[in-house]
Amino acid sequence: MGRLVVMRHSKAEQDGPTDFERPLADRGLRDAADAGAWLANTGFVPDHALVSAALRTRETWASLAGGASWTLEPDFDRGLYAAGPETAIDLIRLVPDEVDSLLVIGHNPTMAYLAQLLDSGDGPSGAGDALEGDFPTSALAVFGYDGAWADLTTGSADLVASYVGRG
């Protein structure tokens, strides 16, 4: 069974030259590194990372990868910045079949909706407890998925774990 991790970017500064260019706050850098360490401790290593091209998501990726000691080059996608949940699913469907472990980093409300839409409800009890009905910055939803990415649909993945890093 493959793995899909859906992540909301870490805590960003309130201001930047544009919304697209807002950097992470110091807390966001720490939280992303902690989330990376948590993922590494679960044994998750992405084969592919689909990351919004916005500055705060690129910085989230860098801190997350640093915390996990990953060297993977991500796919920065400008379309993921403004994507709604259905468009995010469409982007995931384009991921090559040889990818077993996929990480997606984007923005809310899309990442929260995406996590809700994908969840089959058949995962282990308590897998989403860390989210507490919310999808705050640095939130991770870890799904098991048994199928081709091109066939991903709503309700087709099992939420198996969740994590929220807060420094």
Automatic annotation (TrEMBL):
Top-level taxon: Bacteria
- Biased composition of type Basic and acidic residues is found at 10-21
Return the annotated region ranges for Disordered: 1-21
Under the heading PANTHER family, the entry gives: OS09G0287300 PROTEIN (PTHR47623:SF1)
Q: What is this protein called?
A: Histidine phosphatase family protein
